[in-house]
Amino acid sequence: MNIALSDEGSESRQDREDRLYRKITLRIVPFLFICYLVSFLDRINIGFAHLEMTRDLRISEAAYGLGAGIFFIGYVLFEVPSNLLLARIGARRTFCRIMACWGIVSACTMFVQTAWQLNVLRFLLGAFEAGFFPGIVLYLTYWFPPRRRATVVSWFFAGAALAGMLGGPLSGWIMHGMAGAHGLRGWQWMFLLEGVPAALLGVAAFFLLVDRPEQVGWLTDDEKSALRQALSAEQQEKRAVSAASVLDAFRSVRLYWCAFIYFALACGSYAISLWLPVMLREAGVKDVLMIGMYSAIPYGIGALGIVLISMHSDRRAERRLHFTVCSLAGSAALMVVAAFGASLGVAGTLATLSIAVVFVYAAIPIFWSMPPMFLSGKAAAAGIALVSSLGSLGGFASPWLIGLIATRTGRLGDGLYVMAALMIVSGLSVLIALSHATRLRKALA
């Protein structure tokens, strides 16, 4: 659907529309992108701390997996209330609260001495960060119509990959270069130096963000009118299939199906991000600095692949096949790592992990273009948060199960098979379900 910005020809309208969304993108996306990059770095840096923390604190792989994953229990419990609060008090205050609190808790992880202390702080980190990503997804629905969202959201998942690309060398450098400074371990310095920026960004969010498009001064009246028209048309299109209330959102079978799909994606993505340093160590890289440097390669390739695949999905206005191919290809790469492990060598492990990062991470923004199509109003805030919170349990299940299985069998790869299987089921589920929905719409037309 083109926005009627003028009475000129269609080409001129398209140019004006593109210019409008370019302006919006440049104004709000870069800052949110940096915030999400920092949030993801604080979420996964425990994967690098694991290289030394488990030895220093004398905790098992299973205990590490529980500590890494319990983040998502706090995240799930507080995510829906946080997103509903955003709809009530606005993005500025919500993002300020979230980032300032998680930054402080992340920095305090430097003081842990026991497994239970790690569990408490990881739980609190999840509770304070709850609502941040679904809040971003909801906030973007105030600015972009559905057909532009997959590309926009893809930039944030490219941010997740970029966090791995930058965070790996940064974490490795801090742990290597700061070890022993002022009597602190390298992993303690890492938590401190990577946690403080989040708190500072939280303060900045209060001054740099606005709650709604109508409040900004950098859009003309015509541009605001065009944006309202596009978003109003979206609401009209959704009414026939939308839940009209928060209660209906919680009753929607489609949302629980979406939650399962996201659960499988979370299992696959966190199998990579929380265990990638260990995979590299098993492949033969022993120095923590070099592990950090090598880890940048899969994430760097992944960041480019995420954006390109999402843009292609938007241009074709096609989600089903794109998602299915990404899920199946990502699961295949995980199974290769599981089957061959250290025998792949450093180069083979990096190549296979690069394929896994590209396809597993690229599936996520394609997925997130679907749930906002089902809901409007307050139901959108609750529904998006519900999908994200239930699906995020995969972030708990993945490291916990992999750590538990690795402790009992001595093989990291055995747990990866389980994560790959979940992604295969999710890909085939989308392929079948959306194919059936397309045939039904054609039959009713």
From TrEMBL:
Gene3D superfamilies attached to this UniProt entry: MFS general substrate transporter like domains (1.20.1250.20)
Membrane-topology annotation of the record: Multi-pass membrane protein
UniProt main location, coarse: membrane
UniProt-listed Pfam families: MFS_1 (PF07690)
Listed PROSITE patterns: MFS
Transmembrane segments: 24-42, 62-86, 98-116, 122-140, 152-175, 187-210, 255-276, 288-309, 321-340, 346-368, 380-403, 415-434
Subcellular location: Membrane
Source taxon at top rank: Bacteria
UniProt entry keywords in alphabetical sequence: Membrane, Transmembrane, Transmembrane helix, Transport
Segments forming domain Major facilitator superfamily (MFS) profile: 28-438
SUPFAM superfamilies, per database record: MFS general substrate transporter
UniProt cross-references to InterPro entries, sorted A to Z: MFS, MFS_dom, MFS_trans_sf
CDD domains for this protein: MFS_ExuT_GudP_like
Protein name: MFS transporter
